[in-house]
Amino acid sequence: MGSGRVASGMLALSLLMSGCTARRWDGCAIAGAVIGTVGGAVGADQGLGSRRGNGNSAVIAGSALGGMALGAILGHTICDPRLQPISPPPLPAPPLPPQAKVVVTEEQIVTLEPIYFDFGTATIKPVSYPVLDEVRRVMSDRPAIEVRVEGHTDSKGSEAYNQRLSQQRAEAVVKYLVAKGVAPARLEGVGFGKSRPIAPNANPDGSDDPQGRAKNRRTEFHIKH
To answer: What share of the chain is helix, strand, coil (3-state, %, to 5)?
Structure first.
């Protein structure tokens, strides 16, 4: 009878402690098991008094086993780290303001990037639409100003060719701004061909200067006074 109770106690201990098998048996669990075992055995022994027999020994053993299981579980419960609350993901950073495409001075509406055209034509490339839209916004915010749109080219080609091309491109920009709502009377398109370079078209040794020529192919917006 006593050995059966011990076996039953061992089975109960195995079931009770199965929840701990997936968790590491650290110092807390072991200490709790030892304290529980001793406490269970002493408690059972005190309760039984002076009676000593096989049945009583089984009760003491069962109490010790039960105390061990309870101590181990309590050790885990007390010493295991508390789960930290899951914080919500951080809010995304607000979008950066769009980069300015023009700068306004007393003399000019300066575009921070060129107005691009298809090669050899006065057809504005779509990549330049946002820049021209910013010019339109500036003129809308300052209804008193009038602007002269100037077209310039590099030195490639004849005077007549570059003059005509620069005039057509200046007029194409004027037409775009008018289509966006700027009054035609506030705009004037003028072509200067290759007569006003702002950078060398050739290097000192006479070789071609592609970077200089690229700077000369430009559209400027001058505020009329």
So the answer is: 50, 15, 35
For 62, the enclosing helix (H) or strand (E) is helix 54-79
Token pair of 98 as six digits:
């769009």
In angstroms, the CA 106 to CA 102 distance is 13
Domain ranges in the chain?
A: 2-79, 102-224
Q: What is the pLDDT of residues 201-220, one digit of tens each?
A: 999 999 999 999 999 999 99
Give 120-134 pLDDT, tens digit per residue: 899 999 999 999 999
Residue 11: its H or E element? helix 2-16
Alpha-carbon distance values, 219 to 66, 70, 89, 132, 194 (Å): 91, 86, 48, 11, 12
pTM over 0.70: no
The CATH superfamily holding the domain 102-224 is OmpA-like domain (3.30.1330.60)
